[in-house]
Amino acid sequence: MNNLLRMSNITKQYPGVLALDNVSFDLNPGEVHCLVGENGAGKSTLMKILSGAVKKDSGRIFINDKEAEINNPSDSQGLGIGLIYQDFKLVPELSAADNIFLGNELSKKLSLLDKNKMNELAAATIDQLGEKIDPSLPVHKLSIAQKQFVEIAKALRRNVKILAMDEPTAPLTNKEIEILFATIKKLKETGTGIIYISHRLEEIFKIGDRVTVLRDGKSAGTFKLNEVDTRELIRLMVGRELSEEFPHHSTFKGEEILKMENLSGGILKNINLEIYKGEVLGLAGLVGSGRSELVRVIFGADKKESGKIFLNGEELNINSPGDAIESGIGLLTEDRNLYGLFMELNIRKNITISNLNNLLTGIFIDEKKEIENSLQFFQNLKIKAPSTETKVETLSGGNRQKVVLARWLFSNSRVLIFDEPTAGIDIGVKYEIYNLINKLVEDGIGVTVISSDLPELMGVSDRIAVMCNGRITGILNKQEFNQEKILTLATKFLE
């Protein structure tokens, strides 16, 4: 069988970093070839070279056994290559249809855009994916999952033969993942080759045919997925054995830190819940259950209609995120790129920006103090970057999450809420995040974790509060955890 794609001995050097060191990768027609590795292993760089966004230093690329030069995204698209990035490449102000046809717009007479035809075809393409989205809606009004389907529809409309997907299931529900996997199988049947990048190793074995492991910019091997197991993949990715998936921490239920009393607003109905020192409180529920709405009210992003919030026994009057931050409440949002970080600023500025008062000498910021403080968190959290002057937009997902955490620690937060803390983060960095959560708990910080990954939620939590239709339907202690029990509570008030 001829290769659909062959990348041979690809090398890419950045100042001080050898991102790719003679990496080879190939893809066959109708195959799902998975690409795995820790953040910073070289996966994104390899895909950026394939997309034409980054130029290789050396190596060769072949499409259907014919050598190809890819110098820009236009070259890549012309060769039938499509990439769906973890950070969506959509224009928020444009409609879903406009995004799907961007660069390939349909016109009527007098060169006017044929909006009706574009909407019709966009809707039909999205419908192929088993999803219903109004194609005339601006992208900024769509959910993360809907944006993902718009990205896939955009690729389908361009009749790609090579499709790379970077963490495609990170924002999706289980039902949406099933729809995506069904779509991938259909694409395989048409001869499309899929490059599938994911940190969720269970997905690799469900959907993949072969897997290539990258570690520190080098290939650690390519394997048929029926010839390798999860443990071996993890060992190849991280270069060591991980003795357990979720590190143990000593649980002790200390004094109450945060209390919600009859909290209502929007979908929320009479929420009564406490967070204690010495434990991790998990929040479970299906999409739309009210988990994120609850933490938005606690953080002041949404207004409560009634009820009270207490911190260390003192009632809080939270009307904005600024009030919450000043009270000592921090939120690590699900979409860390959009809501958690200033992507164009460096690590130092991102860490210190929420507590500049702590750096003032008179009316001026003490830059030496700022450098010293940011460097302390940079080193303690083991953020992988050349220095604190590195722009956040160049960091991997796991290191971006560490920067957000560093900011809240610098702000002296007493309560930290993690919303999907390991979405798009590799297995090695996940373990680091879990260890950091345990350390926060040991230091007396109140920690709440929201996660759609039930094994993760059960692995890190000491108690789990389950929500459905804006209500708490049950609170489980660790010895009561199992997925069936959680899902039963998560569907209690559904029609």
How would you describe this protein?
The protein is an alpha/beta fold. The chain folds into two domains: 5-238, Rossmann fold (3-Layer(aba) Sandwich); 256-490, Rossmann fold, CATH 3.40.50. Helices cover 33% and strands 25% of the residues. It has 17 helices and 22 strands. It has helices at residues 43-51, 73-78, 96-100, 115-128, 144-157, 174-189, 201-207, 230-238, 291-298, 321-327, 336-340, 347-352, 367-380, 397-410, 427-442, 454-460, 483-490; strands at 5-14, 17-27, 32-36, 58-63, 66-67, 81-84, 162-166, 193-197, 210-215, 218-224, 256-265, 268-276, 280-284, 306-311, 314-315, 329-332, 360-361, 364-365, 415-419, 446-450, 463-468, 471-477. The strands form five sheets. The protein has a six-stranded mixed beta sheet with strand order 6-7-8-3-9-10, with helices on both faces. Strand 1 (5-14) and strand 2 form a beta hairpin. Helix 13 packs across helix 14 (397-410). The mean pLDDT is 86.
Round the mean pLDDT to the nearest integer and report it.
86
Kindly state the number of beta strands: 22
Number of helices: 17
Instruction: List segments where confidence is low: pLDDT < 50 over at least 5 consecutive residues.
Output: none
Overall, the morphology is globular
Number of domains: 2
Strand fraction: 25-35%
Full CATH superfamily name of the largest domain: P-loop containing nucleotide triphosphate hydrolases
- Give the strand order of the largest sheet, numbering strands 1, 2, ... along the chain: 6-7-8-3-9-10
Q: Please give the largest β-sheet.
A: 6 strands, mixed
Could you tell me the CATH topology label of the largest domain. Rossmann fold
Q: Which class of secondary structure composition applies to the elements?
A: alpha/beta
Helical content, roughly? Answer: 25-40%
Rounded radius of gyration (Å):
24 Å
End-to-end Cα distance, whole Å, is 51 Å
In CATH terms, what is the architecture of the largest domain? Answer: 3-Layer(aba) Sandwich
Oligomerization category of the chains in this entry: single chain
The top level CATH class name of the largest domain: Alpha Beta
